[in-house]
Amino acid sequence: MGKRVLVFAFGCIAYTMFLGVFLYSIAFIGDLWIPRTIDAPAQWGTAGAIIVNLLLIAAFGIQHSGMARPAFKRWLTQYIPKAAERSLYVFSTNLAMIVLFLVWQPLPLVIWQVTSLPAQATLYTLYGLGWALVFVSTCLISHFDLFGLRQAWFYLRGADYHPLQFQTPLLYRYIRHPLYVGWFMVFWMAPTMTLGHLLFALGTTAYILMAIPLEERDLIAVHGDDYKQYRRDVRMFIPKLF
Ligand SMILES: C[S@@+](CC[C@H](N)C(=O)[O-])C[C@H]1O[C@@H](n2cnc3c(N)ncnc32)[C@H](O)[C@@H]1O
């Protein structure tokens, strides 16, 4: 029983941390409300800042995609209960994000700026909608499974855990990756695009585009023809009109 409580408590810690990181990210990427953001304060020279920022994005990508691969999970679950694997993934992702927040070097050179108030309001609205899309997409698949709490809760009760089935609820009927569309909106819908923000948007977009084939390869390995057919019928990001 002690081990089950420990796994569940860890799941709750990882999830609470995620909520904090999620809210902080809204302020950090949007350059809103807090003193230390993607755009401020600038400290380093351009070359050093670009190298450090690219390394931060690469480190995040390696953590986030590496720990999601079945082979890594098989190795890890020799040492920790299966029910704790997703929470450890969420916990590690939180740490990678916190390091990025702390070490990120702003590059304030303005690449483009939208000055008209209606256009700014539109971009801020799309930024907010992007965050909403990210959150809603996690709920459509299974929010608490993606963040490890469902696994920990089943384990606490001694119940059998059933992994998520392949599903195409709501938005997933029209595009395969609504959550990533949400991320693209979050990364790109900025009224003031600084060099630092542009680097972040390019780096994270490139990362997602590289991660998708890995995710889809794993989905095909688990769901076989169902996912292959889904790939034929439904586009990645832009719905088919007819
Ligand atoms: C961060 S979510 C991103 C989901 C999707 N790529 C998107 O952009 O909306 C990644 C997890 O969702 C799962 N997943 C992706 N599409 C799914 C589907 N149609 N049904 C069930 N699980 C899915 C993957 O196996 C992976 O564990």
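DSSP finds ten helices and two strands in the chain.
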